[in-house]
Write a structure and sequence with these properties.
Elements (H helix, E strand, L loop, with lengths): L13 H16 L1 H13 L4 H19 L3 H15 L3 H24 L1 H11 L4 H14 L3 H16 L3 H25 L4 H22 L12 H4 L2 H33 L3 H37 L3 H37 L3 H33 L3 H26 L1 H30 L1
Length: 442
């Protein structure tokens, strides 16, 4: 029997928050393992080009798929609100719309792959050998685009119903299958770079099949194929508006990250390498806090759909309390164990010294990042995507306005300070809009 969605009117407890959040944290923890295995198996080929090809190919295809990450966030908010209204027919229809968008986007990428890859290698040029191998890799990976993008929608739909254990199962299956096939195709059969791509291709399509099975209760009601409901113009316009705003917000956020990398490169090889090491701490922070932000998405969305202002407030506060505890733990862990982790990640003495000098900024990051991370989840659940878009525009402008003088005066320290300024700006601007959420729910 399919896992039943939890009644949206259930009491909001700490246990309920943890039941949503912990599977996401565990799911996120598996992501770096797959990248390490991909690199490790091609590393056994005894040449540098295959490693570079898999690396650059994975970055390109992940960047392309990242564009469609709005489908996960938009689906979570809309489905959670429909669940809060106890509109089960709309919950099913939303899954159909998400899958339609994913399949259409994936088909478009397959058709346009030549132009897309040409543009990508213009932005990220590589040696002739690496580019040739990377194109072989991409030529296989692109054929699973419909599945990879559809999994965003399936994941968002499951999170909306607090079924994050199913998300964990899906992630474990995909990564486990990918790793096993990596070892077989590359080390066993000697397929090289195409073997890595084929392993991921199979893992993504099998992941889609598993995801559809996990969501099979949506197909138990005829609403999923009700054309009048699925293609309702008003609902389609609302979904398009939400997803477009989230996409713009995500592009603005990415512009901050990319500019940080580019600015860091301008300070020399050692600061650049130190930043790359410390960004792994930032990834750990994101992986840990995502679980509680996702819990806020589901619970706030349900409360908004039910038009229950007090429940919405509790849905915003409880996950944030847990996120705050985790943030303090991360900051303390980075402070105590950070130097040892740095030593494990690099053996270069000058990079170790630089990374230690900048480590206090990473100790501060979980503290300053908590509020914007949690507010992102709260606003996604409420589908206040226009506020997210507009406030991110303001925050990005503040970041760039701060980064220019700070980097000029303090170099790489100024760059890290500007990153923290961006967190404060995101938190302050979204926080100023929060009271409107409660008014809307009331």
């Amino acid at each position: 029997m399919a896992e039943a969605a939890l009644p949206p009117g259930r009491p909001l407890t700490h246990a309920r928050v943890l039941k949503i959040a912990l599977p996401i944290v565990l799911s996120n923890a598996t992501v770096p393992i797959l990248g390490a295995v991909d690199t490790g198996v091609v590393g056994q080929m005894g040449a540098a080009a295959p490693i570079g090809a898999v690396g650059i190919g994975a970055v390109i295809i992940s960047g392309i798929y990242w564009i469609f990450g709005f489908l996960r966030m938009g689906t979570t908010g809309l489905a959670a609100q429909a669940l809060g209204r106890e509109d089960r027919a709309e919950v099913s229809a939303l899954l159909t719309r998400a899958l339609m968008i994913a399949f259409a986007a994936g088909a478009a990428l397959i058709v346009l792959q030549g132009a897309v890859f040409a543009a990508a290698f213009t932005v990220a040029p590589a040696s002739a050998e690496v580019e040739t191998l990377a194109r072989d890799y991409l030529a296989i990976r692109i054929w699973s685009a419909p599945a990879a993008i559809a999994i965003y929608g399936l994941t968002g739909w499951l999170i909306a119903q607090e079924r994050t254990a199913a998300v964990l199962v899906l992630q474990l299956w995909m990564n486990g299958a990918n790793i096993a096939l990596d070892l077989w195709f590359v080390l066993g059969l000697g397929w090289g770079v195409p073997g890595v791509a084929t392993a991921t291709f199979i893992a993504e399509w099998s992941g889609l099949a598993l995801g559809l099975w996990l969501c099979r209760d949506a197909f138990a009601t005829p609403a999923w194929r009700d054309r009048l409901r699925v293609f309702d113009p008003e609902r389609l316009r609302h979904m398009a508006a939400v997803n477009t705003d989230i996409l713009i917000r995500s592009v603005l956020l990415q512009s901050i990250v990319i500019s940080f990398l580019f600015w860091g490169a301008g300070f020399g090889d050692v600061p650049l390498a130190a930043n790359q090491v410390l960004l792994q701490f930032l990834n750990i922070t994101a992986f840990a806090l995502d679980g509680f932000a996702f819990a806020a998405e589901a619970l706030v969305g349900q409360a908004m759909g039910a038009r229950a202002a007090l429940r919405l407030r509790r849905a915003a506060i409880l996950p944030s309390i847990h996120g705050g505890v985790v943030s303090l733990g991360l900051a303390l862990g980075f402070w105590i164990f950070g130097p040892r982790v740095i030593d494990l990640m690099t053996t270069a003495p000058e990079v170790r010294e630089a990374a230690r000098a900048y480590l206090p900024w990473m100790v501060a990051t979980p503290i300053f990042g908590l509020i914007p991370w949690m507010l992102d989840g709260i606003f996604i659940g409420a589908t206040r995507s226009r506020d997210m878009r507009n406030m991110m525009l303001v925050a990005a402008a503040i970041y760039f306005a701060a980064a220019i003088p700070l980097t000029h005066l303090f170099g790489n320290h100024g760059l890290w300070a500007a990153m923290l300024v961006s967190y404060v700006a995101r938190g302050a601007t979204l926080g100023a809009r929060y009271p409107a959420l409660e008014r809307a729910a009331a």
